[in-house]
Amino acid sequence: MNAELITIRASSLPELFDCPARWESKFVKGMRMPRSGAAQLGTAVHAGTAIFDRSRLEGNPVTADEAAGAVVDAVHKPESDVDWGEDSPNDVEVIGIALHKRYCQEIAPKQHYVAVEATCDRLEISDIGIALTGTTDRVFVSDDGYGIADIKTGKSAVATDGTVKTAGHAAQIAVYELLAGAALGRVIEAPAQIIGLQVAKTAKGQRAGIGKIGGARELLVGDDETPGLLQIASDMLHSGRFFGNPRSQLCNPKFCPAYSICRWRK
Q1: Which domains does the chain have, with CATH numbers?
Q2: Which of these, 176, 123, 136, 175, lies nearest to 5 by C-alpha position?
Q3: pLDDT tens track for 75-88
Q4: Which of 110, 156, 206, 248 is 20 to 30 A from residue 195's alpha carbon, by CA?
Q5: How far apart are CA 2 and CA 112, in angstroms?
Q6: Is 226 exposed, middle or buried (CB count within 10 Å of its CB: 0-12, 13-18, 19+)?
């Protein structure tokens, strides 16, 4: 293994595993494109809910309405260009505030957080030559011990029966568990929570719920016969072999800056 440590953000890992070539275009070649309106909505909801939860953790609680100002700012004052598509910023603001309030009223009162946006500046895994960085949405404590919670917004985040979509999140969750444990100096042992917030234009379609993921870190480790995901990521990073996935749902010019020049679509 190359002794050089290559740093990777935990939040980018799902994209690396979904389409390595798209990941390379963004995070190695530095190709950029506007963020989607859906991604900015997620950022806005994260901003508002973080202020709400952090204020309670610090003993100076604010109301959901007061924290909603961060939602508005994130929508109307984005830090990067946004392609809003068919929705206007005003439309996204309305949805974002509604989901923010639903979280504050339905989810937050049930939680016992010990950290909000816990940041790990650098977790070095020298035996495979990578270093991880990132921020974990929430760390909670329950009868099962310490665990992490990750907020996900989307049009299929929560089913009509209240079931939260957890499939496809295990790899990222596992890395966040490592980062949270390093940041807090605690063992993360409780099943992780996916806090789903269903995106819809009407109150009837908007839903909130909590799903659980257990044993996620087993994906990272692997065994004698099958390498773990971190080993696979390390192999790609150190070799520079980033294959494409034309069957990815994000293989689209709206999401991939290298779409027009991608040889893997042939």
Answers
A1: 1-28+113-247 (3.90.320), 35-110 (no CATH)
A2: 123
A3: 999 999 999 988 89
A4: 248
A5: 42
A6: exposed
